[in-house]
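Annotated sample (chain length 726).
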Amino acid sequence: MSKKFSQIVMMAIGVIAIVSMMAGCAAPAAPAAPEATAAPAASGEKIKVGLSFSDFATERWKNEEVLLRKLLEDKGYEVLSQEANHDVKAQNDQIDNMVSQGVKGLIVVAEDGDAVVTSVDKAADAGVKVLAYDRLIKTPKIAAYLSFNNVEVGRQQADGVMKAIGADSWDVAANGKIRLVKLGGSPTDNNAILFRKGQDEILAKYADKIEVVADQWVDNWDAANALKMMENILTAAGNDIDAVVASNDGTALGALQAMKAQGLAGKVPISGQDATADGSNSIVKGELTVSILKDIRNLSPLAVDTLDTILKGGTVTGLKNYTMAELTNDDTKTGEVPCLFLEVQQVNKDNVFDLVVKSGFQSYDDVYRDIPDAQKPPKPGESAAPAAPAEKIKVGLSFSDFATERWKNEEVLLRKLLEDKGYEVLSQEANHDVKAQNDQIDNMVSQGIKGLIVVAEDGDAVVTSVDKAADAGVKVLAYDRLIKTPKIAAYLSFNNVEVGRQQADGVMKAIGADSWDVAANGKIRLVKLGGSPTDNNAILFRKGQDEILAKYADKIEVVADQWVDNWDAANALKMMENILTAAGNDIDAVVASNDGTALGALQAMKAQGLAGKVPISGQDATADGSNSIVKGELTVSILKDIRNLSPLAVDTLDTILKGGTVTGLKNYTMAELTNDDTKTGEVPCLFLEVQQVNKDNVFDLVVKSGFQSYDDVYRDIPDAQKPPKP
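Output written by the structure step:
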């Protein structure tokens, strides 16, 4: 117990690091909603929340109960906790009891995803926010389902076993078909269904090479049941089996006991899951072939932050609705559930030390128990002899300009994060000069950089130097602006088409476009101010804007459509002065593409008494833009939380340079990314979500979250009109 407890303590200590790391996941999360949203309970009484566990016999659940309780108590909640010992009626009764005691939120590890619906639906109907934790509860009344990519778990299990058996080159004529045993998990656990779906996707590729000699499911994931099943299977098969796909470490280790007795352990590949201490030890011994690491240290903080955000009325970033049919692999199921799925990793003998031990997921002593000292690697942090200090790897930062408010701030953050990881950082700013940016990149490559993060002045022009860098082996990341070459290692940005949609949507709502009476008012006289035509993001913003504006095509007259070189506010001011002169000040709405250009245009509009009367959009939720929103001038801005992008870029570059796989990247064609069908090639991308900011939510989204300072946003605002400081 002391070893397990030490692991729990390590998990709790690692929470801060893990939460920051999660910004780099497939499905990344933004900073949690501000903690001052909910009204305090009467007389300072703590809000109660509940934890309901199927059992504590499964190794991981007790550890997670301890961590969840600690994290919730750290946030000021009173925590009630129950364990049902695999009894579905007991779990329903325990949940009913916690609801009767006044819990406002509930995190549930379901014994049976169908049976627990009885109490969960009652809890939800009573206003309790219920999170399904790692196991689905089959009702659309839950507030969210948080788990791992469980279909991918199954794929990785079957993939590991098929690779170990050499299925691709298996000669059926010489060896006969691969005699396969399938051991599913508990049939009441929906995860087991999803694991099987993933397993079968991989096994289907080898259908002509496989003979399934047994296919059974293990009630309660019970290792003793798995042992008995495998004994019976081996007896029936005369020990003639070639491979076993089992669905977790417990059942795999039970099966292995039977296989050991017949001399098959270490000869017949077998899969597991959870990278438990016992499972990892079995991998080291060459018995268990592969396990799947679901880093539960990420799931507990995610669940606590999610529940906290929901209870305080905030919006949880990263949730995506899935149908119950998708989640259960059962087309008769109806309804949708908000979900967030974390990534998984395949663990085998080659990587168990790095993934499981060095990461602190399991202790060195637990994983390498019973292993002769001569066969153990050095403990993490120890080595046989001190190594010579390694020369720092050089990486480069290339910025289009520092005139744009955000870029200097991000240069400082990127430099710090890279230096914290041990890199030597070279940095250059091109001051809107495309030739200078190419020359600066060439120069950094000549100085030996291995990685490069680029904010491109011109996504076409910079290809000259970026292609040369990539050909020299430099890993180049396009940061927030696309570089139009498939030779880049990745493109990291925000959902820029959605930015444009939200800009146009905010302006159209402000003007009341849905109810606009053309007969009475004439058409909406619209000004479109695009961004810099050399910035591919400006093209994507326009694509999103036009998607929304197309809905009102019969109500809109575009009186001007111009693009603002270099996103220059002074250019936007001059353009708007000319537009207003030509239109006789007769304009109804302006869709501008960032705060800088919008604020430039607003100077011209103020001079004509139109500021605050004519809706206008921006982007970036800058301090000046947010201040203008508070003053009732700028109508809407779009928050792209750049605090998430810099850590994501640094983690991505670091992973690529170290030969790892970046979770969450998805290939897009260059045609999709540029809205230009003549472009060819594909680029790995990851796009973060955005939020629309207006006068009603600027305090919560921008100030309370710490994105901009209270004093900057509320400067020049009379004290009587300011909200209290957070």
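Annotation: The CA atoms of residues 584 and 722 lie 36 Å apart.
Annotation: The two ends are 43 Å apart (CA to CA).
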